[in-house]
Amino acid sequence: MRDSDTWSRILDLNDYERGEMITVSVRACADETTTEYRDGIDGVAREITLPNRLTVPDTANLTASPEYMPHEDGVRDTFVTLQEFIRDGVTLSMSDTGENYYRGKYQIAAAVFDEREADDVSVMPAGDAPSEEDAGGYWNSGAVATLKGKAAETAMTGDFADSTYTLENIDPAYAGKWLKIALRSVSDSNISSWWSDEDDTTENTVNYQWIRIPRIRVEEPKITEGAASVYYDLTSGNCTLESVPEYVPAVQTELDFKLQSYSDGYRIQRIRKAKESNTDELNAYRYDADWIYLEDDNNGGYNIFCSTSADTPLDIQSDGEEPVCREDETAVFVQNIQAGDTAVLPVKEETVQNILDKPVSTQMILSWTPKEEEKEAYFRLILPDAETIMDYADEANLFTSQASVQAVILGDDPEQERLAGYESSEISSWYRYKPTQIEQATEVTTLYDYSDAVEVQSGVSIEASVWKDTAYKLTEKTADGYSIYQVKILDSDQERVLDLRNLSAYYDISSETNILALKDAVYAQYAGKWISFREARVTEANGGNISRWSDWTVPIVLPKLIVESPEVTETTAQAEYILHRTQGDDVPKQFDARQYSWLCERGIHDKIEGYQIQIGQGEDSFYAEIKRDEDNIWYYTSPTGEQIAVTDTLTLLQTESTVQEGAETYTLSAEVILNLTQTENGWQFTVTVPVQEISVKEENNRLSFTFECNMILEPIPVNDNYETN
């Protein structure tokens, strides 16, 4: 190679031993195209002793920054942001081992692999793998990508004492994968070392350093607020985003967010506005929540799942063959959505006004707007909050307290492929608040993560409840406020899950107590089964959010559901009975009677649907059933099946006792009477029956009449899952 007036040639001296003497001479050679000149004579010979090679670097001394850290729930700084990764890359650092006494640099070769290989000390073929895909045996054979080949002779900055090099423009798709790095020492005045994987096996040097590319946090799907027009057909309850003249128009709050690269889907959380207890037994509030999950279907779209902690279940029909939500076992498949689709979600609210005497139920809607020339793809989340209905505005129709969106990485195994390379994004949180008593305002903020999981308090208890429609009551003393519980029912061997759902608890501020009502309709059937639960806290700071779930509690057995028999009081009284004679008139007289009384009180006896009253014993016993309806109106069902409303006094039975005295027959006719009296907290029942023995003086005779009218009372539970004692 000629440079100005200087000629040079690079010689490969690898075939010579270090320290060997070589002779070098130069002679001029004639141009092959000329006939006027011939080669010159040999030049003056110069003897050169070959220097030793530089020492092969110890790859173990190569480190990287930022360092890879595995995912750990609730732990920060185990990742870099996407912007940081693109801006800063991965910086490699190498320190001198003390064996290179010369001035020089390190050269690196780096390739990306899916998995780390075992350490190797064997001799590898020199150079880089050919471009053919089937070429094997080279240091970078089978690599996902070669970032710096050996042929590139990429030198680190610095010297043998301290060198650095920043790998830039690494594709974020390689996050969590492995860098396979080979090294060699180079110098202007000494022969370069072998590459760390090409030196003799007697050197026993490890060929490569394996460095894991740091995990990347997906970018936040920032919410922007707008408004959407939705049109409702009051007859069918259907809705559309297209204007239909005969439909009722509503303007609803819209939250938009862009699709984010490298995410597996999106978690949308919605906290409804505070709800006041509608029971007489409780003066407290709670927050219901809804969850919407979008999970990548590996076919260009997303599967939509929904879950709620509200009392009213989501109206979703399932045949058991739908996709299963990976994030939440309680979530139910709604539908698949592709770019350009719109999905009406099973989350609805009923507005406070009627249109044409029909209530308007507003819906939550999700629409996917595909990418256009200058606009990125984005989702439109239309909340059920009606800012106006037919131009009518009412604050009561603003149903959402807070809504948030997070781009998520699915999985819970830190070594799982996706979670090994990426972290779920920060949370974009929209919330509604009142800066003044009459003014409504909204704001969007960024939450770094969900707040830490709470510890379930040791004072938590579960007991059978006396409340109407409630099987069990869970109470927890806590000063931290509103909670949502995930409740799991297990069979007797604690292996099979019988029921799993989210439920919001009421929070009584005065007693600092969470109160969770487990309803009869669901939980009464599980008496004697095992129950476990975990808890998440609804926080009100920064616009509000929901914490991470706590650990599951140790399962305990649900107590039996027992309806206690009422306490019956027996007293004496007077009653008017009729004495019949075969000769003479009927004579009404006052006689001794027995009265059985008991109370049925609201909030104490709500598990009692009614009573079975037995008069007498044995085959001749008389039975009467008294039951109440949902409006607490009591009814008696007669032997003929007729339902008779009990308002005050009702004759249940007419009974007689007959005595023969000579030629005269005497019959004493008595009544069994039920009396119902309204009390301050419920009702008092009184049953009046004749005493067992009634003595009547008739002329010179004393007649003795016998009545078998003892009363036995059995409560009738609200359903068959309750036992009576």
Automatic annotation (TrEMBL):
Superkingdom classification of source: Bacteria
Protein name, entry field: Uncharacterized protein
